UniProtKB/TrEMBL annotation:
Region annotation (Disordered) ranges: 49-80
The EC number(s) this enzyme carries: 2.3.2.5
Domain Major facilitator superfamily (MFS) profile: 111-594
Transmembrane region(s): 106-131, 224-244, 256-275, 281-300, 307-328, 334-355, 425-442, 454-476, 483-507, 543-564, 570-589
Enzyme class: transferase
Pfam families in UniProt: Peptidase_M28, Sugar_tr
Origin: domain of life: Eukaryota
Keywords linked to the UniProt accession: Acyltransferase, Disulfide bond, Membrane, Metal-binding, Secreted, Transferase, Transmembrane, Transmembrane helix, Zinc
UniProt protein name: Glutaminyl-peptide cyclotransferase
InterPro entries the record matches: M28_QC (IPR037457), MFS_dom (IPR020846), MFS_sugar_transport-like (IPR005828), MFS_trans_sf (IPR036259), Peptidase_M28 (IPR007484), QC/QCL (IPR040234)
Function, in words: Acts as a glutaminyl-peptide cyclotransferase. Responsible for the biosynthesis of pyroglutamyl peptides. Might be more efficient in the conversion of tri and tetrapeptides in vitro. Might have a relative preference for substrates containing hydrophobic amino acids in vitro.
Species of provenance: Glossina pallidipes (Tsetse fly)
Gly residues composition bias: residue spans: 52-80
GO cellular component: extracellular region; membrane
Length: 976
């Protein structure tokens, strides 16, 4: 078998460019589709051709790295590489060893102490520096008098309240002897001379701030110390980030916790402000670096990460935060409190015995054996069994990817600012995250200015983390990021402003706490949003940079809270306005839910282009999930211009001519008036008829075959069958029937569109319907024929240069285990039949197939299609062009790119292989990686993503229409 790169067969279609190949072969890797479900899926790679050739520059993308010819990113070299595109990434092997089994649950419990560490490090300084609102100058001469008499005699009133910083400048001994008990307001005043007295009914213990008398002219000291803490967090993040990259995540985790431990314990023994500030600077090193969640999450399957990440904060962090004020209250000593909240950080020395090193870091350092040993430990504890060859494939691929990465260009955060859209997006992310960070930290520290007991208020405010994180876990993947980020920030701002127009006390505190609840939601969305929007090549650096800019904002936050000394309402006004501004800015970001995340800088520049600000993912899903198609709301409205029916999404776009369509885009759309007919009902009815168990030989199989046959006849196709019998494993002798629907059977060449219609035999899954495999592909072919029917039966009919052939292969699936003998029964038989039957054109029937386009595994979100064969690269480029034009015209629903022109140096075993052997050009439209629920019971209607299906169908039918239309005009296209 070869990969046919040396062929030069002509295909008429899209461009007059001619390509000449060197006739040499690159290594082609075959991916065998074996039986099994997601937990026992086995994939093997087999090199089928060795030789030299021109290496591709498509390496580094998951599932796109090839073997020979210098490797999937090299060039001009030779080699015999074998790469399994399904085990290219760490996340690909997690389903095999367990995504959230016993091992991950134990790791989840290991988060408990570290979540407490974060809360202690972050919030403890608040209770170390508390100062009662009621504090006054100490007058030693009046120490024997009751408090109220001392105040009445020695402290002037300002706006009805006793001054915190002034005392009367009089002879108190003389006044006391004369029996004077009330001051004369005309007496001269002076700043406190003998220190201050504090109302211990507010704060029942002395703090470092009260012992140091950080009030009046030193009132900003706690604010300075808090900002210095965040400055330490920035420095610690940079330092221990470098340590993590150089020496590993666990050494970094231990190091930052030990620094925090040493500085926190030393805090208890400081004697002045500068000593305190220096120690808090070093405690800041541990903040945000001492949490293990980011390391533990990589061992948790992608489908559980939202739950684990949010619930660990909701439960453990919230519990620690709510405990903290009462620890300070009942310990009654700030030095003891500093020791109690810092000493637990020493437990980090046990981290290596509890938490494994980051497998991704080990792989990046070439220590694949250690990573595999961790995976084997995880596999054993989860009770899974993964074959040794699977680990070997994973290890080989990791090493190859590392070699690829070393060859690739390096990127820096500066690359985010080199193109206009990406620069705008990055600046928006920075501004939004800074506002979120400032508002969040401002709310945390402003609880003491709300007129209620700070211990109670702080506890209630922190408890809002639990419902906020719980709610977010439930709705984030349903409502999307953009509108949740916007609404939560705006509501936080609104409630903060409302708190300023009600009296201080219960009402203002309640409204401010509601504002805190909403900013908790936006805080947890913020960095995840940034990580999803930024392209992979600069994602880590970009997120780190945005995170640091958030720390810059938190350095400012204590000064915003300090404005309460001017007016208690001023901090809330600023926090409210910033919240509303940050929320509105969020609307300018693209939605990321159900979109493929950008990989390259180019992807990042294009990401979100064509999205409407009014796109609501939840509304789209609600429509998509309606089971009764008769009651499905009309999702498209039709706008007619000069007889051309154009469809536009009703999500705020009723007239396509008013949706930023330029004149050129409009002219392009007008070329396809028949493609915008209402076809949703036909597609859904077709899919419903096909999506049933249809194992070869079953009643369901016969019913689906009859349905497809009748549909083809009704659409005006000449129908032929290729029937044969064969003994297969497990089920014995079966009759297979390939179906062929043909228009223009006497044409010299054919465009062949193909898929298989049988479903996989699973003895333990009798109701397996194979929604993506292959119900949706069958429905797509029939729906394309239906949509193009008026053209096919008029202008296209009776053409001699080109015919259209729809092929529905039978028996694609293996009955026992995928092998050369047990698979693709129908396509092998049909290829033999067509290759041995000469026709009136003095050539074999199979040679009349100009190109075979095979569809498989369609219908899930985030599907990506790549080119597998050099001689059909340009066809995939044409699909990509159509996709981009539709996006520019806003004709795709919440769409991100599906078609990528880069080529994968792998071949996936499928129905096209017998035709490939006969020198037929192949365009294999199968997503890489495979759908999540491939060959599982969950490959049913619930796994489908309707916007993706509609988008694919729209692109595909325009592609087919252009192909057959331009073929008639003899616009030559030579295969590479």
């Amino acid at each position: 078998m070869n990969n046919n790169q040396g062929r030069s067969k002509d295909v008429k279609g899209f461009t007059n460019a001619a390509f000449v190949t060197d006739g040499e072969y690159n290594t082609t890797t075959i991916i065998r589709r074996k039986s099994g479900n997601a937990n026992n899926l086995q994939l093997e790679a087999q090199t089928v051709v060795d030789g030299t050739g021109n290496g591709s520059n498509n390496g580094g993308n998951a599932g796109s790295v090839g073997g020979g010819g210098g490797g999937g990113g090299g060039g001009g070299g030779s080699g015999n590489g074998t790469v399994n595109s399904q085990l290219m990434d760490f996340d690909d092997i997690l389903p095999l060893i367990g995504e959230f089994g016993r091992y991950q649950k134990l790791l989840f419990l290991c988060m408990i102490p570290f979540a407490f560490f974060v809360a202690f490090v972050y919030f403890s300084q608040i209770f170390l520096t508390l100062i009662p609102d009621q504090h006054w100058c100490t007058v030693p001469e009046l120490s024997t008098l009751p408090l109220q008499e001392r105040l009445a005699l020695s402290i002037p009133r300002i706006n009805g309240e006793y001054s915190n910083c002034l005392m009367y400048n009089v002879n108190y001994t003389e006044l006391h002897e004369k029996g004077v008990r009330v001051a004369d307001p005309s007496w001269p005043t002076v700043a406190c001379r003998h220190g201050w007295s504090y109302n211990t009914s507010e704060i029942p213990y002395s703090t470092v701030a009260t012992e140091g008398n950080w009030v009046c002219d030193k009132a900003a000291y706690p604010t300075y110390a808090q900002s210095i803490f965040f400055l330490g967090a920035i420095c610690g993040g940079l330092l221990f980030g470098w340590v993590a990259d150089k020496f590993g995540r666990i050494p970094s985790l231990i190091g930052c916790n030990l620094v925090g431990f040493a500085a926190g314990v030393t805090t208890a023994f400081v004697t002045n402000f500068w000593q305190f500030a220096l120690m808090r600077f070093f405690v800041g090193f541990a903040f945000d670096n001492c949490f293990t969640m980011m390391y533990i999450l990589e061992y948790v399957g992608p489908h559980y990460r939202t739950f684990v990440a949010n619930m660990s904060i909701a439960i453990f962090f919230t519990l620690a935060s709510c405990m903290l004020p009462w620890m300070a209250y009942y310990l009654g000593n700030w030095q003891l409190f500093a020791l109690v909240t810092s000493a637990p950080l020493i437990l980090a020395i046990f981290t290596p015995f509890l938490i494994p090193e980051s497998a991704r870091w080990l792989v990046s350092q070439g220590k694949v054996e250690k990573a595999v040993s961790i995976l084997k430990r995880l596999e054993k504890m989860n009770g899974k069994h993964v074959p040794a060859e699977t680990y070997q494939i994973f290890a080989d691929n990791c090493l190859k990817l590392r070699q690829e990465d070393n060859k690739q260009d390096s990127y820096s955060v500066l690359d985010l600012f080199k193109t206009p859209r990406l620069r705008r997006t990055t600046l928006l992310l920075i501004a939004i995250w800074m506002s979120i960070s400032l508002v969040f930290d401002g709310h945390v520290r402003n609880v003491g200015s709300l007129g209620l007991d700070i211990f109670f208020t702080f506890t209630v405010a922190c408890f809002t983390e639990f419902p906020a994180d719980t709610v977010l876990t439930l709705i984030l993947d349903k409502f999307g990021r953009r509108w949740l980020a916007c609404s939560s920030m705006v509501l936080s701002g609104v409630f903060s402003l409302l708190a300023t127009i009600v009296p201080l006390g219960l009402y203002s505190a309640s409204l401010a706490i509601v504002g805190r609840f909403f900013v908790n939601i936006s805080y947890n969305i913020g960095l995840q949003y940034a990580a999803e929007i930024l392209p992979t090549v600069v994602r880590a650096q970009g997120v780190a940079f945005i995170h640091i800019m958030g720390y810059v904002a938190t350095i400012i936050a204590p000064f915003v809270v300090y404005l309460a000394n001017i007016s208690p309402m001023l901090p809330l006004v600023i926090l409210g306005l910033l919240g509303i501004a940050g929320g509105l800015l969020s609307l300018l970001l693209p939605e990321t839910l159900d979109h493929d995340l950008p990989q390259t800088l180019g992807d990042g520049e294009e990401f979100g282009r064509g999205q409407s600000i009014w796109d609501f993912p939840c509304l789209a899903k609600k429509i998509d999930e309606v089971d009764d198609m008769e009651q499905r709301p009309q999702y498209f409205v039709r706008s007619t211009q000069n007889g051309a029916s154009l469809r536009a999404s009703t999500r705020g776009l009723y007239n396509p001519l008013n949706t930023c369509l330029t004149h050129s885009i409009y002219v392009w759309f007008r070329s396809y008036p028949l493609l915008w007919s209402d076809d949703d009902r036909h597609f859904n009815e077709t899919l419903t008829a096909i999506m049933r168990p249809r194992v070869v030989g079953s009643d369901g199989h016969k019913e689906v075959r009859h349905f497809i046959t009748n549909e083809l006849k009704e659409l005006g196709f000449h129908v032929e069958t290729d029937e044969f019998s064969q003994i297969v494993p497990v089920l014995g002798n079966l009759t297979f029937v390939n179906l062929l629907g043909i228009i223009n059977p006497e044409a010299s060449d054919f465009l062949a569109l193909a898929c298989h219609y049988d479903s996989k035999y699973f003895p333990d899954i009798p109701n397996f319907v194979g929604a993506t495999d292959s119900a949706v592909p069958c429905a797509t072919l029939l729906n394309t024929a239906k949509t193009l029917n008026s053209y096919l039966l008029t202008d296209f009919k009776n053409r001699q240069d080109l015919g259209l052939m729809l092929i529905f292969f039978d028996g694609e699936e293996a009955f026992l285990s995928w092998s050369k003998a047990d698979s693709i029964y129908g396509s092998k038989h049909l290829a033999r039949k067509l290759s041995t039957s000469p026709d009136n054109f003095a050539k074999r029937h199979i040679d009349r197939i100009e190109v075979l386009i095979l569809l498989d595994l369609l219908g899930t979100a985030s599907q990506k299609f790549y080119s597998f064969y050099q001689n059909t690269d340009t066809l995939l480029q044409e699909l990509s062009r159509i996709e981009r034009n539709l996006m520019k015209g806003r004709q795709l629903e919440g769409h991100n790119f599906m078609f990528f022109s880069r080529r994968i140096q792998n071949t996936i075993e499928d129905d096209h292989l017998p035709f490939l052997d006969e020198d037929v050009p192949i365009l294999h439209l199968i997503p890489v990686p495979f759908p999540k629920y491939w060959h599982t019971a969950r490959d049913d209607a619930d796994s489908l993503h309707w916007p993706t299906i509609r988008n694919f169908n729209k692109i595909f039918r325009i592609f087919i229409y252009e192909y057959v239309k331009n073929h008639k005009e003899n616009v030559n296209f030579r295969l590479m």
